[in-house]
Specification:
Number of strands of chain A: 12
Low-confidence stretches of chain A: 10-14, 43-48, 298-308
CATH topology of the largest domain in chain B: Rossmann fold
CATH architecture of the largest domain in chain B: 3-Layer(aba) Sandwich
Radius of gyration of chain A: 20 Å
Strand order of the largest sheet of chain A: 7-6-4-8-9-12
Largest interface: A-B, 43 and 32 residues
Helix content of chain B: 25-40%
CATH class of the largest domain in chain B: Alpha Beta
Organism (chain B): Ahrensia marina
Organism (chain A): Ahrensia marina
Number of helices of chain B: 26
Pfam family, one (chain A): DUF58
Low-confidence stretches of chain B: 533-541
Oligomer: heterodimer
Protein name (chain A): DUF58 domain-containing protein
Shape of chain A: globular
Largest sheet of chain B: 7 strands, mixed
Keywords (chain B): Membrane, Transmembrane, Transmembrane helix
Amino acid sequence: MASIGQSTKPTGNKDALIRARQRAALVPELLVDALRIVNTVMAGWHGRKKRGIGETFWQYRPYTQGETMARIDWRRSARDDQTYVRDQEWEAAHTIWLWVDQSTSMLFKSSAAPVSKESRALVVTFALAELFARAGERVGYPGLLKPSANRKGAERLATAFATQTTAMPDTPSFLQVQRFSDVVLVSDFLGDTDETLAMIDDLASQGARMHLIEIVDPAEEDFPYGGRTEFIDPETGTKLTAGRAEDWRDDYRNLYQARRHALKARCRAHGGSYTISRTDHLASETLVRLHGFMTGNPAATGKMAGAS
Amino acid sequence: MFGLPLAFAVPAVLFGLIALPVIWWLLRLTPPKPESEVFPPLRILQKLVKREETPSKSPWWLTLLRLLLAALVIFALARPLLNPQTEIALEDGPLLIMVDNSWASASDWSARQRTGAALIQSAGERGVPVAISPSVSPPNATITLVDAATAAASFATLEPVAAEPNRAQALNRLSEAASGSENATLAILSDGLAQGEQDSALDFNSNAVAKTLLFNGEITQLAAVSDAQNRTDALEATVIRSQNSQLADEINVNAIDEKGRLLGTATAYFEDGANEAVAAFEVPFELRNDMATLRVENQANAAATYLLDENNRRRRFALFSGLAGDEAQPLLSPLYYIERAIQPYADIVRPRTNDLSVDVPEILEQGPAVIVMADIGVLPNVVEDQVENWIEAGGTLVRFAGPRLAASAEVDPFLPVSLRSGERDLGGALTWTEPQVVAPFSATGPFAELDAPRDVTVNRQLLANPDAQLAEKTWASLQDGTPLVTGERRGQGTIVLFHVTAEATWSNLPISGSFVDMLRRIADISANTGASEIAAQSTASETLAPLRIVRSDGELISPPAFVKPRDTGNSAVTNYENPAGLYGTQDAFSALNILSSGAALTPFVMPQTEATVETLPYAVAEQTDLSGWLFALAFLLLIIDTLAMLWINGRFKRSYKTASASAAVLIAITVSGLIPDPAVAQDAKPGDELLIENLDATRIGYVLTGRQDTDKITKAGISGISRYLESRTAFEPSDPVGLDIETDALAIYPLIYFPIDANADMPSDTAIARLDAYMQSGGTILFDTRDQIGGSFNAGQSPENQRLRDIMRNLNVPPLEPVPADHVLTKSFYILDTFPGIYDGSPLWVQASTDEEGIDRPVRRGDGVSPVLITGNDLAGAWALDEAGKPLLPIASGNPLQRIYAFRTGVNIMMYMLTGNYKADQVHIPALLERLGQ
């Protein structure tokens, strides 16, 4: 019986360049995917240019059922019988940094998932780039692409990926990130949790708002292994043999969820968002959800989002 | 090996077992290969591992399993043999086999077969010819040297015979067969028993024989019955066993009758080291006489079965009477009462002619135990000596008084006491004395244990001359002290005299129960004086045809073809043609037993010969190659190992649908091969469904006559009365059921209506028998001849009536009577005085009540319901309604009230069926209520 999980392109840590090339070959296909997803997601949005994340008042609008009560403007609502919500204007010159984890662990794909984690991560990233570019935002990628407003955001990013000549560092440098910019981190966050938390704290201290998208393979979350199993870390090559893997299942899940909760809680504490994208679910779900967070209206899109 | 008869054909392979520790080490070191999985969140797992150690070695039981598997394979390769056969070295010359197929070889005959087969096989391998000479064989058998294959075939057909071996003859034949050859091997497959002088006479042409192989049989397990004697109080069987016997000191002997039933068991207690013990069957005479066979328990040899014949059994009574030919008036015959008294436990021998001088010698030849002479005065001189000798030798002479003896008493030599001439008359017309009663029996005589009869009176008797010994010779006397029965020992025999006649003229003793007891006591003290030679009775034939033959395992069978008639002139020694068994006819047979009195089981010792003698054991059991079983076991372990590996690797959990399914299939195949299909008993019978269907409600049955019009009216009639019952009573019958009385179950119907149709077929005997059984088991049949218009039940002219009589002829019908006015039927629901149907004239017949007349009761006691009701009024016709509830048939008299009464009749009958005597008991209600204290 074949093993459950596999690394799609098992390449060493040092061959990032080769991997980059291989990834570049993958890019056009992913780009098409991303554009298709963006089109379906965009179709459902209205007035996006009017309201959004910003500092200034934009409008009062009637409260709709399901919105959080905290957004109700009680002063305006007290004037007549209706309940109103205050919208802010979407600030135009918003900078959004995208970053994709390109470590070896992202190459993992289990039999239950249609795509590898990396493939999903890139699709989400390109789609976000396209979305934000169309919305007139400045999209940048640390170490690869300087923030600029360009209609063809995804294409630009894809080109950058495809023509990338140097290996990308595993941990990005966010030195260029300034206040009021948004940072979208797409990764499996399976590295050292403490390092990740430190990075989040750093970003928060720089005044940026961060959005973490955790790409998860179902095998990682569900741990469907059983029997005598030897586990190999794709990054370090460390091996670990379980006598009866099913005995570990419950403990593993607890630890796994604990890690996720730690990240999520830290993220929320800094006003950011944490989205989970399972590779066996649709990528558009992630986009809709993330967009909801970024436009400050997560409840409206909450119904569509699969992950919490 | 290990105390088991186990050896290895290739023991060198067992050195492979040394490798086991290495295998163990390797197995411990190399655990099963794990499934390799890429797993990015390994760091999380690593946190877990701090708590839980991963087993890097195989589980111990898996290692053990595999070691066992390896060991099994090594053992299997070494070809283990159960009961290994030792190689037998033969000489270059022919192989001569002398085999004892006698009775003692039967219990382990298969061992001899195997040994012989092995011998012949090795002879075949060496290419030497073989001669086989069984020691129990036909007298004209010839032995030749044949090749091994032929010899093996003929040896396989040899069977033990319930007879003594004749080894000298067998060896002679062998030496004839082997004459001219050299370097022969003589194999003696003996049964282990010495044959006494026969053995010392064993001689063999020792020049030709280079080596003698002696296979000596085991006799320490043998026990046999050598003799059986019917003593006064017990049948004593002599059980013998060998020296140093391994049998228990208590050996049970079973007595079996002619039909194979066990009559009793006696135990022979062997004293320490004794070879002989006696098992005594202390059972009554009658039971002893039924014994046909004695068998030693748990012994499958022919000598453990001892056949009994007439000699061991009943006493023979010879009856002589002075009055010949009184057969027209048997009650007056003096021998009649004696015959009746002794018949149950003795054989009666009658004189052929009425000439004492001819009869007495003839009968004495048969060796009777008792000769009864009723009123015989004088014996012819020619036979006096013979009788005298017979008595001296142990015969018992019983004489009864009578006019003739009274006349000749003074000169008669065969009397226990001297008698006065003439008889004494008591209570006659010319005497003052009363008839005398019997005094208590003498405490020293044989009747001491008996109670003297109180009701016996003696009118006449012979008186003894008083002398000093009279008192001790008197076994029974009258109240006045005069002797009634006297006896005297003479030599080993006894003479008994009854001082009254054998018939009831002088006293009523012969018709009392005491007479039987007294004769029996006399029979007990008597003994047969010689073996009854059947030839004496049937002088024409010299030989006796075989009747039943003892098989070699001790069972009695019909004689096989090789058994020849037995010449009674020959000595009673069993041989091939005359094995142990019963010879003669069913009524008169003599038993031929293997052992005779004084026999002993002594071990066979080979007489000294010049050739070397090698003593070998028999091959006790078949050599079995166990490697196949071991390989099978190893394969099973392999399967278990595979399943265990699948389980360890979690295949059963990971991919439930594939791995576990295939494992389940594997297990199912393995298990289905091991567990036999449980067979479920088939106890369903045809018609069960119908029976169950008809059980849920009470139904009235009616008999299908086979004639459509009758059956139609009957069905409509029973339906009609069912509807009427439903509307008027609490009883709600279901649809009526038409019954084929020959096949259908009848027992579930409380009432079966039987319309008699003379045109229908007569019910078969089976059907009538079933009706009878139904009635006996509590059912009731209502016969309706429907012929009141033509006659009545009594008249008997109508064909229906005749048919009914024909049917009832084979039924157990109680006496019948027309329903009396006080019968329960008249008031079980409605008060009725007539029971009309379409017709009104016929009475309803029921079982006659046996109650005493004249007791004034409102209702007769009606315990039990009449099993049969008979009417001629065509009840069903009156009850028959169509769908709309309109009557189908008109009432004969035209009176519409009669139909209502017909229905009421039906209701009463049905209530009578269902409640029985309950209605009769209702009359007691006032009294019961009063008693309850109201």
